[in-house]
Amino acid sequence: MLQLIEFYSKPCNPCGYYDDRYSHFRYFFIQNCSKAFCQALIERGYRRFGEYFFTPMCADCSECLSIRQRVGGFVLSKSHRRIIAKNTQTTITIARPSLSDEKLQLYNQYHQIMEGKKGWSYKEMCAESYCESFVDGFCDFGYEISYKIAGKLVGVGYFDLLENAISATYFFYDHKFSKLSLGTFNILTQLLIAQDKNLAYFYPGYWIKDHHSVGYKERFTPFEVLKNAPEIFELPIWELYQANTKEI
């Protein structure tokens, strides 16, 4: 039976995207979440990590936007095809989420590098925290993609396969293989899975226009933007994003 606990973060937590701002989140801790309820939350702007679902409720900032790609309208560009061609030696394995020393080591290595590269706050993750973030709560919809080259793990992606969509959860990779554009390759892999399964949408997570960490998500078109902040019993309002629109 589904069990849900609602709570909120402290409004004085540092923002993960802007050094001069604070973040405030609404959380649901959900055990035994159904695929349908997960999709309902994702459609309303929530993201999932483990058994936790969250959405921003920042009083003085609305930069984080929920977006979703229209899978049926997505067409591979020339640059996308080049990235796929670069990864012909990259093997892909899809399985249920699990913990291994290799994944944990790659995760910590990735975040340690990103601390210096993009200023991310780094704290070594333990096995228990890894499970709480990526393994717990996958129920009947959570999956893990392992990317390997010559047997070496070079990237790990997590996603939820829902009733009419795929929702990307997280991705990390080995920076020694940066030339392969593994982050983009991971998104393309999930978009192509969604197309193969005739799903309607792909949810890549929050987008901030021109931001150095999440601005890249606008490169996958066409995409829609969530225009409201609906409660679970209210309908979400999604609108197609137009690149020449001055205000979103």
What this model shows, in words?
24% of the residues lie in helices and 31% in strands. By secondary structure, it is α+β, with helices and mostly antiparallel strands. The protein has a single domain, classed as Gcn5-related N-acetyltransferase (GNAT) (Aminopeptidase), CATH 3.40.630. β9 (142-149) and β10 (152-161) form a beta hairpin. The longest helix has 18 residues, at 101-118. It starts with a strand and ends in an 8-residue tail after the last strand. The model has no long low-confidence stretch (mean pLDDT 94).
Please provide a brief summary of the model:
By secondary structure, the protein is an alpha+beta fold. It contains 5 helices and 15 strands.
Can you tag this structure with a few keywords?
5 helices, N-end_Aminoacyl_Trfase_N, 4-stranded antiparallel beta sheet, globular, arginyl-tRNA--protein transferase activity, 248 residues, alpha+beta, Aminopeptidase, leucyl-tRNA--protein transferase activity, 9-stranded mixed beta sheet
Q: How does the SSE layout of this entry go?
A:
Blueprint: E1 3-8, E2 13-14, E3 22-23, E4 25-31, H1 35-43, E5 47-49, E6 52-56, E7 65-70, H2 78-86, E8 90-95, H3 101-118, H4 127-135, E9 142-149, E10 152-161, E11 165-173, H5 182-196, E12 201-203, E13 206-207, E14 223-226, E15 238-240
Parallel strand pairs: 11-12
Antiparallel strand pairs: 1-4, 2-3, 4-6, 5-6, 7-12, 7-13, 7-14, 8-9, 9-10, 10-11, 14-15
